[in-house]
Specification:
Strand content: 25-35%
Structural class: alpha+beta
Largest sheet: 7 strands, antiparallel
Shape: globular
CATH architecture of the largest domain: 4-Layer Sandwich
Number of domains: 2
Number of helices: 16
Number of strands: 28
Bound molecules: adenosine monophosphate
Helix content: 25-40%
Radius of gyration: 23 Å
Distance between the termini: 33 Å
Length: 472
């Protein structure tokens, strides 16, 4: 998970980076950070908490320069410690380097062991520091960033979208399978790289395109140069970004997430129709799905659970009673919409099953007669090793239970998960170009002890075709 952004803008970047990170806040709430460069000096600020808690106008005014990068962190690897907040900033020979990363490496331990065997030291437990080491290692021999990214793509196994700032030049690259998203946008005076297009929208900019898997882009005063470093016949875009993680108003690799979710809702009705009085979303993650289900079934869309928008972060409550109370604080039922009614409850996914069970309890307590659950993803049966916080098989309710058993556990009258075929069709990207590891247990990169089908990757050795893209 995590959100990253890089901006070059003649009018200064700190406030733009702040707005972009604000738009990406859903990708990580643990820490936030910004590094900027004014042609001579690096300015930086980062801290634990939400973007609005970490920054204020005085701090942003102190972050000078026309180029900078930012990060919001959701910890998938590396503990919840202040030193793991990104961007990381390094001095290397005469260079000032900042780096921000979204993704997860599956060979991080092996690589770290190799570096440590050669006497290298690490300050954090993150993959990001390792990526920085690989880059500076190669820069110290060839001196060339293209070669350094080439080396990254050869030796890093896993998902990585990376934004780097080296002496005020901005670089962005995406792993050869394009697992995690990254797009390029244009603002009135500048260029932005970001995890999702909503960050471009937040600056009033225009989405230009997605970074291609295996591509490196370099942005400086001359515009943007793009180089293809590695090519694969198959991509492996994370399917869970469409299901849950990305914002509904983002366009990821050509697909508007809202439309994907609405299409899934329509197909959920085709696959599992039900006679009911109303379609109720679990806010906000189930809303677009529920609208699709309602439109196709012609059963009215009736919001019957209201979310308290001020409960930003999930509370980590010490006891079960407290946790139940927290769900009640977060979601309040509208009794008049539920009493005596048969309701179709629509949500994006069931992970551990605790949320669904609690929500169904709330709806029944409010007087609902029947609760039919429709879920916008197939059953999640396997962990994610590539950057989404999907836990171990033991914690996943569907890993060893049939749909009927899960239905019983969550106390629904009926339960249906969308089929993988209908999900893929709704996204509009061929199945061979999607990572479905959490749904199928088969991954696009090799992972010890797991089944995998890694596609072949061609590395374009030393013959990087550079294409200059100038934006008027
Ligand atoms: P549960 O089944 O109790 O684990 O909760 C599942 C719900 O949490 C889903 O309906 C999503 O809205 C949300 N969710 C799904 N995946 C994640 C995740 N990786 N991190 C946080 N929330 C998630």
């Amino acid at each position: 998970m995590c959100g990253i952004v890089g901006i070059r803008d003649a009018g200064g970047v700190s406030f733009s980076l702040y707005y972009a990170l604000f738009a990406l806040q859903h990708r990580g709430q643990e820490s936030a950070g910004i590094s900027t460069f004014d042609g001579a000096q690096l300015y930086k600020h980062k801290g634990q908490g939400l973007v609005a808690e970490v920054f204020d106008p005085a701090i942003l005014r102190g972050l000078e320069g026309d180029v900078g990068i930012g990060h919001v962190r959701y910890p998938t690897t590396g503990a919840n410690k202040p030193e793991n907040a990104q961007p990381f900033n390094f001095l290397f020979r005469d260079h000032i380097i900042s780096i921000a990363h979204n993704g997860n490496l599956v060979n991080a331990c092996e690589l770290r062991d190799e570096y440590e065997a050669r006497g290298q030291i690490f300050c954090t437990t993150t993959d990001t520091e390792l990526i920085a080491k690989v880059i500076t290692d190669e820069m110290s021999t060839s001196g060339c960033i293209e070669d350094a990214v080439h080396r990254c793509m050869r030796i890093l196994r896993g998902s990585y979208s990376v934004i780097l700032m080296i002496d005020g030049t901005l670089y962005g690259f995406r792993d050869p399978l394009g697992i995690k998203p990254m797009c390029i946008g244009k603002t009135s005076q500048g260029i932005i790289l970001a995890s999702e297009s909503v960050a471009v929208d937040a600056l009033g900019g225009t989405l230009l395109r997605d970074l291609k898997p295996g591509e490196l882009v370099c942005i400086d005063e001359g515009g943007m140069r793009a180089m293809q470093i590695a090519v694969s016949d198959c991509r492996a875009h994370c399917i869970f970004e469409y299901i849950y993680f990305a914002r509904a108003d983002s366009i990821l690799d050509g697909a508007l997430v809202y439309d994907v979710r609405r299409n899934i809702g329509a197909k959920l009705h085709e696959e599992a129709p039900v006679n009911a009085d109303s379609i109720c979303p679990v806010p906000d993650s189930g809303t677009a799905y529920a609208i699709g289900y309602s439109k196709t079934s012609r059963i009215p869309f009736v919001e019957s659970l209201m979310k308290n928008r001020y409960m930003g972060r999930t509370f980590i409550m010490p006891s079960q009673i407290e946790r139940e109370k927290a769900v009640r604080m977060k979601l309040n039922p509208i009794r008049d919409h539920l009493t005596g009614k048969s309701v179709v409850l629509v949500d994006d996914s069931i992970v551990r099953g605790t949320t669904s069970r609690r929500i169904i309890g709330i709806i029944r307590d409010a007087g609902a007669k029947e609760v039919h659950v429709r879920i916008g993803s197939p059953a999640i049966t396997a962990p994610c090793y590539l950057g989404v916080d999907i836990p171990t098989r033991q914690e996943l309710i569907a890993s060893d239970k049939s749909e009927e058993e899960v239905r019983g556990r969550i106390t629904a009258n009926s339960l249906h998960h969308i089929s993988l075929e209908a999900l893929v069709e709704s996204i509009g990207i061929e199945r061979k170009h999607l990572c479905t590891g959490c749904l199928t247990g088969c991954y696009p990169v090799s992972i010890t002890g797991e089944q995998s089908q890694p596609p072949a990757i061609d590395f374009l050795d030393g013959t990087y075709q550079t294409k200059l893209e100038l934006f008027e």
